[in-house]
Write a structure and sequence with these properties.
Strand order of the largest sheet: 7-6-10-13-1-14
Mean pLDDT: 79
Shape: elongated
Number of strands: 14
Strand content: 15-25%
Helix content: 55-70%
Distance between the termini: 103 Å
Low-confidence stretches: 225-235, 471-477
Number of helices: 9
Length: 477
């Protein structure tokens, strides 16, 4: 019996409905697979990788703050100098807790996190021993200073572990991306097997997923580039655009940043004139990032304002004003500043008188024309730690050819294994220099070669030499 047209219509409608249902099922499967892949990727990036990298970097920053507090106590023997050490410990504990909580996603990171915790405990015991030695009296202070090198070696091992954690995090990122790609390929294969009719839908979904991933990666890279550009502009705004032309003096300066993006440091220098004298300033703010940059700008402006508002202000008064400004500033609890200031006033003979003062800063080096080098050490307290601090200054007569050299501790702390560049190598470089420009360029080359191109801290240098009266001074940045 021939099939009626009505029956054929019913069969076609049923087939069309089945095809629609199949396409809908394939499309739903594709959507589910793509969302599952993206959800897993988001967990890996947002729930594991980002906290892992942030906590690893913050862990080292907190240990730097602990070391800074102990060294400040070693220099000043004031209990108030230990504030950075005491405040950093809870943050360090929280960073280790975060690392342990996310490390289980990647078994290779678990032993690295355990090693970081053990090394942090070793550093804690070392810091506690140093504090106890300093508290025991003058002999303990002497013993503690002899132990500084051993502590630095322990800290280098800790940095190496942090670098290994970050390297493993990069490997984890690669594996996660490959896993995501494999999951996407498998989902696509399942969809093709279910129905060739849904290949177009699966292709569209796969294309959109790939495009979304590309846009996400491009957005991250673009944001990182913008962050780097903004940070570079901000860092340069904290330094003179160019050194001024100082009559009868030659100047040279150098700034070498180590951190990138928001990890920019707090080293700075400045040269300005007030009341017939020229002021040379070099400083270093504890910490890195936007908070350090904000405090750096505040410190530089506080010094300028204090000098320019009262032309006869003595340098100890300027440092006391700086100390008050930092204590009253809206800042991070661990932040303070070291600074060295020299005011140079020339007379009719071409010679000059230089008043020099510092707040917990490395010594200013005075190089005489005959090559003799004198360190000017007047280690006043760190600025921004306590209210009741005193600062002193000294005066030196500068003859024609004499030179002042000011720097931050990134110069002497440049490392090669367990060895530091140190004050002796620096003094030898200053002794052999023929002028400010060769001195600054030579030291920059020496510390780069000594550290194998891997300087661990920012560097700022400023050199000034008295010239013959008839010669016009020129500044060169």
């Amino acid at each position: 019996m021939p099939e009626s047209s009505e029956s054929r219509s019913h069969r076609l409608a049923a087939a069309f409905a089945a095809l629609i249902a199949l396409i809908a099922a394939v499309a739903a499967t594709g959507v589910w697979a793509v969302n599952s892949v993206n959800d897993e990727a988001n967990h890996r990036y947002l729930g594991v990788l980002i906290p892992m990298r942030k906590s690893a970097r913050d862990l080292v920053l907190q240990m730097v703050n602990e070391e800074t507090g102990v060294r400040g106590y070693l220099i000043t023997t004031r209990r108030s100098s230990l504030r950075p050490y005491l405040l950093a410990q809870p943050a360090r504990t929280e960073d280790l807790r975060t690392l342990r909580s996310v490390a289980n996603d990647d078994p290779a990171i678990v032993p690295l996190v355990a090693r970081a915790g053990a090394q942090a405990a070793v550093l804690d015991r070392y810091f506690a021993d140093e504090i106890a030695l300093v508290a025991s009296g003058p002999r303990g202070v002497t013993a503690a200073r002899r132990n500084v090198e051993a502590g630095t070696t322990k800290f280098d091992r800790f940095r190496a572990t942090e670098a290994a954690i970050l390297a493993q995090a990069d490997l984890y990122t690669g594996r996660s991306q490959r896993s995501q790609d494999n999951d996407a390929h498998y989902a696509t294969a399942v969809i093709v097997v279910l129905a060739l009719a849904s290949v177009g839908i699966a292709g569209v979904l796969a294309f959109r997923t790939a495009r979304r991933n590309r846009l996400l990666i491009a957005g991250i890279e673009s944001a990182r580039d913008r962050e780097h550009d903004v940070a570079s502009v901000l860092q340069q705004s904290l330094l003179p655009v160019r050194l001024p032309a100082v009559p009868g003096m030659r100047l040279a300066s150098c700034f070498i940043p180590v951190g990138e993006g928001i990890q920019m440091g707090g080293d700075f220098y400045d040269v300005f004139e007030a009341g017939g004298a020229w002021y040379l300033v070099v400083g270093d703010v504890c910490g890195k990032g936007p908070a350090a940059a904000r405090l750096t700008a505040l410190c530089r402006n506080a010094i300028r304002t204090s000098v320019l508002s009262e032309h006869e202000t003595s340098l100890p008064t300027v440092l006391r004003a700086l100390n008050r400004v930092i204590l009253r500033a809206d800042r991070e609890p661990l932040q303070f500043c070291t600074a060295a200031i020299a005011s140079v006033r020339r007379d009719a003979t071409g010679a000059a008188d230089a008043e020099i003062a510092s707040a917990g800063h490395p010594p200013v080096l005075l190089r005489r024309a005959d090559g003799e080098v004198e360190p000017i050490e007047r280690l006043g307290a760190l600025a921004g730690v306590a209210e009741d601090v005193e600062f002193t200054s000294v005066t030196r007569r500068l003859a024609v050819g004499d030179m002042l050299f000011m720097y931050t501790d990134g110069v002497t702390d440049a490392r090669r294994g367990g060895e530091v560049f140190g004050e002796e190598r620096l003094a030898a470089a200053v002794r052999a220099a023929t002028g400010p420009g060769p001195l600054v360029a030579g030291i920059q080359e020496q510390i780069a070669a000594f550290a194998g191109g891997h300087v661990l801290d920012d560097v700022a240098m400023l050199a000034a030499q008295v010239e013959q009266p008839a010669v016009s001074g020129r500044g060169s940045a």
